[in-house]
Amino acid sequence: MTVVTIINSFIHAIMYMYYFLAACGPDIQKAVLPMKPWITKSQMIQFVILILYASQQFVIPNCTVVSNWVVLLFVVNVVINFFMFRNFYKKTYTKLKKT
């Protein structure tokens, strides 16, 4: 599951770079503010990639890196995180249309 670690580390490096820049003062914070929705989107894309990657174990014969129940728990965890991030994205970055 090295791919999982690499992808997660890449996304977190971007995320913490944003936090660092945002902490450098109000001018820089304004400049990097548009990155916030893209970081959230990239995290959701990461979750989809992780689900697909981990699910290989269930569809490829003789592909057993770890126990199936461990992979299943991982996938369930990632799915839950995906929906939490999706709800956060919808509440934070999408505007409701007034009728």
From TrEMBL:
Subcellular localization: Membrane
An annotated GO cellular component: endoplasmic reticulum membrane
BP-aspect Gene Ontology terms: fatty acid elongation, monounsaturated fatty acid; fatty acid elongation, polyunsaturated fatty acid; fatty acid elongation, saturated fatty acid; sphingolipid biosynthetic process; very long-chain fatty acid biosynthetic process
Class in the EC hierarchy, top level: transferase
Protein name: Elongation of very long chain fatty acids protein
Keywords for this protein: Fatty acid biosynthesis, Fatty acid metabolism, Lipid biosynthesis, Lipid metabolism, Membrane, Transferase, Transmembrane, Transmembrane helix
Reaction equations catalysed: a very-long-chain acyl-CoA + malonyl-CoA + H(+) = a very-long-chain 3-oxoacyl-CoA + CO2 + CoA
Membrane association type: Multi-pass membrane protein
Family: Belongs to the ELO family.
Transmembrane segments: 6-24, 44-60, 66-89
Molecular function in Gene Ontology: fatty acid elongase activity
Annotated EC: 2.3.1.199
Pfam families on file: ELO
